[in-house]
Amino acid sequence: MSTEVLVFDILAVVAVIAALGVILARNPVHSAVALIVTFINLAAIFVMLHAEFLAAVQLLVYTGAVTVLIVFVIFLVKVDDLPEFYGGNPVQRIFALLIGLALLGEVAAAILTRSAIGASDIWTAEAIADAGGNAEVIGQVLYSEYVLAIQITAVLLLVGTVAALVLARPASATLPDRVKRTGLISLAHPRGADREVAAALPAGLEASRRGETSGVRFDDRGVILVDNAEAFTDQTAWGGDRLEGDD
Amino acid sequence: MVDQPFWITVISAFVVLNVMLIGMAYMTWFERRMLAQMQDRVGPNRTGPFGLLQPIADGVKLLGKEDIIPEHADKRIFLIAPLITFVTAPLIALFIPFGDPVTIAGQEISLAVTDISVAALFVIGISSVGTYGIILGGYASANRYSLLGALRSAAQVISYEIVLGLSLVGVFILSGSLSLVTIVNEQRQALDFFGVEIPNWFIFSQPLAFVLFMIAGVAETNRPPFDLPEAETELTGGFHTEYSGFRWSFYFLGEFIAVIVISLLAATLFLGGIDGPIKDGVWWLLLKTFIFLFFFVWLRATLPRFRYDQLMGLAWKVLLPLTLFNLLLTGFIVLERNGDTNVLGFIRDLLFGWI
Hints:
The complex is a heterodimer.
Chain A: H1 2-24, H2 28-48, H3 52-76, H4 90-117, H5 125-131, H6 134-142, H7 147-168, H8 175-185, H9 195-199, H10 201-210, E1 216-218, E2 224-226, H11 229-234, H12 236-239
Helix pairs in contact in A: 1-2, 2-3, 8-10
Chain B: H1 6-38, H2 54-63, H3 75-91, E1 102-104, E2 107-109, H4 119-140, H5 144-175, H6 180-187, E3 190-193, E4 196-199, H7 202-205, H8 207-220, H9 232-235, H10 245-270, H11 282-302, H12 308-338, H13 343-352
Antiparallel strand pairs in B: 1-2, 3-4
Helix pairs in contact in B: 1-10, 1-11, 3-4, 3-10, 4-5, 5-8, 5-12, 8-10, 8-12, 10-11
């Protein structure tokens, strides 16, 4: 038993230190790394509590996916351009404090209530073992009692996916624009998606000429061809946003 | 689940992890020799008989190299990132059952280091943590090629992890468990196939899932033809461009361990693991794993690298629908077999009920 307590102590201390690191680190990437460490330690604590399924979900969903999203956001944000990130705005600070206190209160209330009423008598350790284990019990409860909530969540996720697709779609999908964008993104574009673009070759070529991508044309396979190396490097995609008189 | 003292688990974990490290060292030797054979070359043959001491010589050489840290690098993360890849990869081997429990001096010892009831989910979770080594290493290098490699890796691993996880769900449905020990035991039963007795290996009942798992496994380990995060022709090495010496070799070795682990998993989940025609034991598992290791080297010698948009298109437009189809089919068949529902009648009513 003492080994268990020792391991728990190590995990708990590291989790708390890492959690402090999340809010104290100056660099957002360091915060994200500290968050990963916190999550992994929490997962290990769940394993020690015989909540293996919860631990696996913690690893997969939180550590694996959500933090990848955080890292993505951080890749797209320049750290030096974020003066407000260091908490200069007093209104923001007050709000953060209030929300933090509210969350802390909620967690404390949940823990206190639980210790007041005692452990649940429906799902005791024996009952879970009888039903076949953690994953089985969670599955049974989720897909019987909470089936409506599951379905609503699923629809919500679907809406989120569709919204992401709509956001990722080009705002103006007129043909000249698409021809220009095709020329900007890839020199060997896959067939299919842009066949329409390739079919509208003369008009598209005109548009791409106006967009300073001279020497670029499409052949009938939808592959974009360039006349020479200069035409290749002159495309804006390779030079970023070109300024007037840049050359 | 075998009840054993804590220190026995520690010792068996120590043994498994060290065997993994040795296996990884000789995987590099095996790959170089085998590639050389396939390309009509000789391969490393100077250091020891058949070049068998080459991995040790390489290790010593890499230890002696200078450890360069770029000036603008995010130093702390730069130093830690290779270790994440290197440490997480062999952990998965701790879930693999290497045999039935054995009794030594009256103490029953489990040959799977840990038999967690949701081991299969842990495997996927740990491998997703291992990706952080690549993402953070690419970010911390302060190099555009490295960052591009890291971003490619993030996108690739997220996409293929979905395929990897979903392809296993069919196996979970058939075995009714997420525990690797139970899954192996389920496969050790005999199956009557039109009068011929064949083992109940899931490669026979889930052939599509097996193919999908192998494709996703190759992508997950960043091996050719899916090695886009480190494509040297376009990214000069990708995420490990700025790494040198032993830190670079952590990435290299982590990749080889991941290859061994995926092979072990494929053998355990689809080929019955320790199950064999004569006497069950770890030798069958090793033989099956070896076949998969050869397969990985073979792939590298045979296939050219994918283009990036092809890679993502393959995952989302081909593999994911196939895994979902496999899931649907497996679910229907299991329901029909159990007699829980009249699936065929339901489909008939759905299609022709309006007549």
